[in-house]
Amino acid sequence: MRASTLFFGALALLPILVVGQLSGHVGPLTSTSSKASKTCNVLNYGAKADKTTDIGPPLASAWAACQTGGTVVIPAGDYAMSTWVTLKNGKAVALQLDGVIYRTGSAGGNMIMIRDTQDFEMHSSTGKGAVQGNGYQIHAQGSRSGARNLRLYKVTDFSVHDLALVDAPAFHFSMDTCTNGEVYNMAIRGGDWGGLDGIDVWSTNMWIHDVMVTNKDECVTVKSPAKNILIENIYCNWSGGCALGSLGANTAISNIVYKNVYTWSSNQMMMIKSNGGSGYVEDVVFENFIGHGNAYSLDVDQYWSSMSAVDGSGVKLTNLTFKNWKGTESNGASRGPIKVVCADDAPCTDITISDFAMWTESGSKQWYSCRSAYGTGFCLKKGTGSSYAATTSTQSAAPTGYSAASMSADLKTAFGTTISIPIPTLPASYYPGAAPHSKVAGS
Ligand SMILES: *[C@@H]1O[C@H](CO)[C@@H](O)[C@H](O)[C@H]1NC(C)=O
Ligand SMILES: *[C@@H]1O[C@H](CO)[C@@H](O)[C@H](O)[C@H]1NC(C)=O
Question: For the chain, which domains are there?
Answer without folding.
Answer: 1-223 (2.160.20.10), 239-410 (2.160.20.10)
